Amino acid sequence: MGSPILAPSMLAADHTRLAEDIKCVEQAGCQWLHVDIMDGHFVPNLTFGPQTVADLRPKTKLFLDVHLMLDNPQEFVEHFIKAGADQVTIHVEPEYDIPGTLAKIRELGAKCGVVFNPGTPVAAVEPYLEQIDMVLAMTVQPGFGGQSFQESVLEKTKQLAAWREERNLDFRIQVDGGVNADNAPICRNNGVDTFVAGTAFFKSEDKVAFRQKVEELV
Ligand SMILES: O=C(CO)[C@@H](O)[C@H](O)COP(=O)(O)O
Ligand SMILES: [Fe+2]
Q1: Which of 27, 35, 96, 99 is most buried, judging by how many CB atoms fall within 10 Å of its CB?
Q2: Across residues 156-170, what is the average pLDDT?
Q3: What residues are labeled active site?
Q4: Pocket-forming residues, ligand 1, beta carbon under 6 Å
Q5: Which domains does the chain have, with CATH numbers?
């Protein structure tokens, strides 16, 4: 299990002043920034495109963790990696060439991961575990920030952690949706090492303390 990492989600930032809000993420001592890309088809919402990532890239050294919520991610991974994404995660629910897309992400020099929704069986990601750097277990239905954490998903992160250990694999296990400083400990107890937090991070008065709680430093 990797050391705990907090990845604040840019979705909950002020979209008219992204560069300033990203400075808050850096000042909190974070290493990662989670960037949600939505297409209005796979999820009923729209967010950012490759241009946003390209414009942010020279402004920050944060590890850009790009979560693609697209029906056709295979058509966009190259654009996001060329724009500066450090890692790209792709959903397993749409029909497309998932192993080929993961291989393409790696060839283009980024880390890769797979994502599954709360209603998707954990078995859907099992075929890719040897090919990835991270599995993202959604703890809300994707599309919007500010929803309630679905604790039942942690049975699946526990299963992922068991597979990781039994097979001597080395992927991170991330949760995304409704994550806060109160539910981070139960996530950690179920194998999670990477925590996306949008609303809870940006609303917290003391962002350094928030990070320290989630990363188990206090
Ligand atoms: O991918 C998504 C939503 O689809 C997330 O990354 C959200 O941005 C998390 O926001 P909070 O639930 O933490 O407010
Ligand atoms: Fe996300």
Answers
A1: 35
A2: 98
A3: 36, 176
A4: 9, 11-12, 34, 36, 67, 140, 142-143, 145-147, 176-179, 196-200
A5: 5-214 (3.20.20.70)
